[in-house]
Design a protein that fits this description.
It contains two helices and seven strands; from the N terminus they run βαββββββα. With 153 residues, the chain is of the alpha+beta class.
Length: 153
């Protein structure tokens, strides 16, 4: 089964500032919950470009690290980018990041389309744990972005 996660956030900053921050893979670490022990292994040392492969290690469960290899599959400068999982914990992962100028700053939209592994068993684990974990990651990210850029009313 395919699942979706959709988030929107208004950021009171210029498009250039927001794009510069989110197009630098190294900035993913500070907006990822510390208990995930997120670590970029390779490919994150330059600003994002189409075709870029980034290798991460991430700890979804305490003591169990997982390899996550993503490709920046699409980039339209100052508008959007898409990362797709090539190797990792999901059967399918397609994460769209959209940015649009507003009167008060930038509207950022995250839209994730994903499928857990293991068919029906994966769907049950999604209902019991994966969905909650993803919501927690994006809640943490929302708060960190507010701390970094200020919250928009």
């Amino acid at each position: 089964m395919i699942h979706y996660l959709h988030r929107e956030q208004n950021i009171p900053a210029s498009m250039n500032t927001v794009w510069e921050y989110f197009s630098d893979p190294k900035n993913l670490n500070p907006i990822t919950p510390p208990d995930m022990n997120f670590e970029i292994i390779a490919g994150g040392d330059v600003n994002m470009y189409e075709g870029q492969i980034i290798e991460y290690r991430v700890e979804f469960l305490r003591g169990l690290k997982s390899l996550w290899l993503t490709e920046i599959a699409h980039v339209r400068d100052h508008q959007y980018f898409v990362d797709e999982q090539r190797v990792g914990p999901y059967r399918f992962w397609y994460h769209e990041h959209h940015f649009s100028q507003t009167a008060s700053g930038v509207k950022m939209i995250d839209h994730v389309t994903y499928a857990p592994p293991y068919g029906i068993l994966g769907d049950m684990v999604n209902a019991l744990w994966i969905r909650q974990k993803l919501e927690g990651i994006f809640n943490f990210r929302f708060q960190k972005i507010n701390e970094l850029f200020g919250s928009s009313k």
